[in-house]
Design a protein that fits this description.
Layout: H1 2-23, H2 26-30, H3 53-64, E1 70-75, E2 78-83, H4 86-95, H5 123-133, H6 139-166, E3 170-172, H7 173-190, H8 203-213, H9 219-227, H10 229-234, H11 242-262, H12 269-275, H13 288-319, H14 321-337, H15 344-348, H16 351-363, E4 370-373, E5 392-395, H17 397-401, H18 420-425, H19 444-461, E6 462-466, E7 490-495
Parallel strand pairs: 2-5
Antiparallel strand pairs: 1-2, 3-7, 4-5, 6-7
Helix pairs in contact: 6-7, 6-19, 7-13, 11-13, 13-14, 13-16, 13-19, 14-16, 14-19
């Protein structure tokens, strides 16, 4: 019996190894240029151990660009088309979007309700959410929210003044801007006073950080869930730790209960969600869990992306003082036209600030890749490069942004890349910090507004330079999907 058992185990192991090997020979069988996958990680062996995702993908882009519209890579055993041709990028994101509407991200609203948000969800649910949310992010709604942003930005300046006198003029910029964005989003979106600027350990900030650090599973299971989201749903797997799930679900359910109880109406994100709430058992509309999922996404997206982007902008301006001086001069000239007040119109008029921020997101795109999932077979014009149905697609944003063909001397920080003349010289889809096409970032306008306001106020009052602990070049966390600076950004501040 023991010999039979050993033989059966050997057969099973051999069969599994054969399946893995067969799966990881997909691109070889197709005759598409490809990487040599590592067992069992595919091309992801170094990600989350020694390298960030963008630095794993950069050499692949450099090696295979020009060999075809895409090359083949593997996320563990899952083959993916790694797009290196901007013409195909444009077709996927814009021209032929109907084939590539879905992202193919893990989402399991039944067992893990917060994953049912507009970023992770696909299909008709995404179409419904996008259509309903779009009116919330118009310029008119942004202008309505602007006084709240300015109010929180003034609080930021008060806290900076206290930091200036209490910390030898060294400020953890990433930390303090994260607290600022937490308060802005809490107030603008949900009418919640987070008090993060005054309380560094406020629950919203702590949970915001934990959302990018805590994991429910080890890296192996997380990678499997990302590579096989349909299987993960069938197995009823969850991605978020209970601590985060309970916090965000609790906050949103209390807000819903409070607003409905006393019939509060506010012109904010939460009010829109409540208007979309499912009525009387109808299949149309949102459940309380759906509302919690959208609130969770909106908070996290604004908290992380804007705080990192502002930190990187100030880091580069500290490194390039002439750029900082030029940006500050523009701020002072513009606000003088508006009686030294930071109005919505004044922020819109800061064109050089816009260039600085655009160059920041060119060099440091917070989301370093875009993912898509093919709903049907797609003919690229070459039979060898047919994109089959249910194919995972990766668009390497960071690599495109650092391609010298589009951005000469890509490591140089140069806001002049974003003059109207320079932008017109570059092909479509060579700049993708917010994606492009119908599934671009819906909150981009809001993120820019809160970032520009903070930058303008800070530059108006302070000069930023390197502190003793500031590195010449930033290094990035290896375990996150976003581009996150290790240890954050510390800078020295002096009053202008």
């Amino acid at each position: 019996m023991m010999h039979v058992f050993i033989a059966l185990v050997a057969i099973i192991i051999g069969f599994v190894l054969y399946l893995v090997k067969y799966q990881q020979s997909y691109w070889e069988r197709r005759g598409v240029p490809h990487t040599e996958p590592n067992f069992p990680w595919g091309d992801m062996k170094e990600w989350r151990t020694t390298k960030s995702l963008c630095h794993v993908l950069q050499p692949i882009y450099d090696k295979f660009k020009g060999t075809g519209p895409f090359c083949g890579i593997y996320f563990m055993m899952t083959p993916a088309a790694f797009v290196t041709d901007l013409g195909l990028v444009k077709k996927i994101l814009i021209k032929d979007f109907q084939y590539f509407q879905d992202r193919g991200e893990f989402h399991n609203p039944e067992d893990d309700p917060l994953t049912g948000n507009i970023f992770q969800t696909d299909g008709p649910k995404w179409v419904y959410l996008r259509k309903k949310f779009s009116p919330t992010f118009t310029s008119g709604k942004m202008k309505y929210m602007f006084p709240t942003i300015v109010k929180v930005a003034h609080e930021l300046m008060d806290v900076m003044e206290e930091q200036y006198t209490a910390t030898d003029n060294i400020v953890h910029i990433t930390n303090i801007i994260g607290r600022y964005t937490s308060d802005v989003i809490g107030s603008c979106a949900f009418g919640i006073e987070c008090n993060s600027l005054r309380s560094p350990d406020a629950e919203f900030v702590v949970m915001g950080r934990k959302s990018f650090e805590l994991r429910r599973h080890n890296y192996m299971i997380d990678s499997l869930m990302e590579a096989y989201p349909k299987l993960a749903r069938k197995l009823h797997l969850r991605g978020l730790p209970d601590e985060l799930h309970n916090f965000y679900m609790g906050i949103v359910h209390k807000a819903i209960e409070y607003r409905q109880k006393i019939n509060i109406k506010r012109n904010d994100f939460m009010n829109l969600l409540l208007e979309m709430k499912r009525k009387d058992g109808s299949d149309v509309g949102l459940t309380d869990n759906d509302i919690a999922a959208q609130a969770f996404l909106f908070f996290l997206a604004g908290f992380e992306t804007s705080s990192s982007a502002v930190s990187y902008a100030l880091f580069e301006m500290a490194k390039n003082q002439e750029i900082q001086n030029k940006a500050r001069e523009e701020v002072k000239i513009v606000i003088k036209e508006y009686n030294n007040e930071f109005t919505y119109e004044a922020i819109q008029k800061m064109k050089y600030m816009d260039r600085v921020f655009s160059e920041t997101l060119r060099k440091y795109p917070i989301l370093t890749t875009l993912k898509r999932f093919s709903k049907a077979a797609y003919d690229t014009g070459d039979p060898r490069y047919l994109i089959e149905k249910d194919m995972h697609i990766t668009i390497p944003v960071h690599a495109i942004h650092h391609d010298p063909e589009y951005y000469p001397d890509p490591e140089k920080f140069d806001p002049e890349r974003f003059t109207e003349e320079e932008i017109k010289k570059r092909p479509a889809c060579s700049y993708l910090p917010f994606g492009d096409g119908p599934r671009n970032c819906i909150g981009a306008r809001f993120g820019k507004l809160q970032s520009y306001t903070a930058l303008a106020m800070l530059l108006n009052k302070y000069k930023f330079s390197f502190a003793p602990q500031t590195p010449e070049n930033l290094t990035f966390a290896v375990h996150t999907l976003t581009l996150t600076a290790m240890g954050g950004v510390h800078l020295k501040i002096e009053k202008v």
